[in-house]
Predict the 3D structure of the following.
Amino acid sequence: MNEETLNIETRRFLKKVGITAQREIEHAVEQAVAEGRLAGSERLEAKMTLEVPALGIRHVIEGTIALE
């Protein structure tokens, strides 16, 4: 195993996850506000699940996203 490769590949994967997740959340919030389902001042509970089946990892991260 090359630790530097592992580090780079892990960071590359997490960057992709972060960018994609942010884009999806922002798009969904904008659409919900435009459709009147959200006022735009809510605090949204969020949950992200990381799974790596080959390693037996299943880790849940929970948090809140404030819109204002």
About this structure: The first strand starts at residue 43 and ends at 52. Residues 3-66 form one domain.
